[in-house]
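Archive entry. Fields below.
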Amino acid sequence: MAVLEVTNLGISFGGLRAVDGFNVKIEEGQLYGLIGPNGAGKTTVFNLLTGVYKPTDGKILLCGKDITGKTTAEINREGIARTFQNIRLFKGLTVLDNVKTALMNKYKYSTLEGILRLPKYRKVEKAMNERAMELLKIFELDGQADYLASNLPYGKQRKLEIARAMATEPKLLLLDEPAAGMNPNETEELMNTIRFVRDTFNLTILLIEHDMKLVSGICEEIYVLNFGRELAKGETSEVLKNPEVITAYLGE
Amino acid sequence: MKKTTKQTLITLGMVLACYAVVEILMALGLVSSLMKGVLVPVCIYSLCAIGLNICVGYLGELSLGHAGFMCVGAFSGALCTKFLEGFIHNKAILFIIALFVGVCMAALFGFLIGIPVLRLNGDYLAIVTLAFGEIIKNIINNIYIAKDGSGYRFAFINSKTIELGEEGTWILNGPQGISKIPRISNFTIGIVLILIVLVISYNLVNSRTGRAIMSIRDNRIAAESIGINVTKYKMLAFVISAAIAGAGGVLYAHNLSTITATPTNFGYNMSIMILVFVVLGGMGSFRGSIIAAALLTLLPEMLRGLSDYRMLIYSIVLIAMMLFNWAPKSREWRDMMVEKFKEKRLKKEVD
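PREDICTED_STRUCTURE:
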């Protein structure tokens, strides 16, 4: 069964049709790319999938379950996690606490147990710490666990955002321009991390990216969006050769 | 020891040390009666400042009506004491029941205000709490409760509907408030309350719930994206914040024999005053809130000798403290001094 199945998804902002007839089917363990020129509606698709916007029409199925119209928090609990184009970390919290915050729906104790510091609090907090450190280690952030998130260098902030999203144990991970602002070395490293994460957690990933080296390097299939509509989709190498796609990116 | 545990213990130790010093000075007769009079208010304002800090410093929502919650706590607590006075003679039990009722009522009002407002994003909470603070005073000024031979009498707006018999007494007489409240509050009770509230607050912010609250402050959209129910945790933080202000109110009511809901004690100025404690002490620092509340309450008393210039000096000191604490240049300078001090100590150790 497909992890994500979207049929005829669309949204209008007043008279503007931002996304129209978006159809996609992503199988388990796939790395799927979503590309398109600026303003094509890529981030809008992400916002629709995560419930930030309510779709005007269409249906979103996650592992066969209809999640159309649910709130962002509910959709996350169903199994979609995301990162943001402009990094959105909890800047006043430490790196470790950023991840621990995301673990809160998996490791539970009540507010009262927290205030009274009952045994359950200690037990769960300990498990939380261990799990968070494990995740930070994967992203090579364990050395900076006590840093404030805002004090991390840019590339590491991007990684922390992915680590935080991973902490919610998603079935589907949405990455919004993960390589934006990175130099070629950092991009290379990021590609390896994304591959590693996909393989170890058997995760399904949908990513938006402008860096074609990264897209052609790791995505198995891509979807090209232009003015909110499908321009092409299919195997990465073939789609990137498509003259229409090249025209949309570079002009006539 | 974990860093957060250390912070908590330092603050608790600080409060206890202050308590010990003041008690020793009082035993030696070195504290003037004027100073003795402000000891309980210091505790009251510290409590309210800690409560507001949860809302402003940790949740990141501005409340301009915490005096309103204090007012709710004070009146419901005092009413409870007046009702039970005849049945329970143990003052400690009386106070604990009043405290419970006051805290619950303040929390209830916080909850009711939170239902519509906390669903919205932006500065709506500031506007609504500001209005709440003013409205609650007017409502209390129009409630009349009396007791006579035939039982309790209740009236709203029009007090003439109550015709009291010979032995009838007013419990809550509208604008004249509640009088003859047993004066149970003292400095020790105040300090105990502060310690309890501090432990609750520190444990709250260092728990799973606290992290959720702070993540909403730092980035609401990201908090939603990791599955946090934003409205629920906003509500939780706001209700706890209001409840703590209510505890301050109960302490206030039992410190005076008569309480009235006037602009001077529960008005807008008081709400702003509590906010000043929080901002001066540092958002997200309970210890700072207590220090600021204590300093700014004691300062006007200490400056009494300056008579007419008192408030002038007070405001200058306030501005100076704010700059010294929070201006970037002065923080830089402070950090530099700390570094220098550390270097010196290192050198000494090497020698």
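CURATOR_NOTE: Strands of chain B lie at 143-148, 151-156, 169-173.
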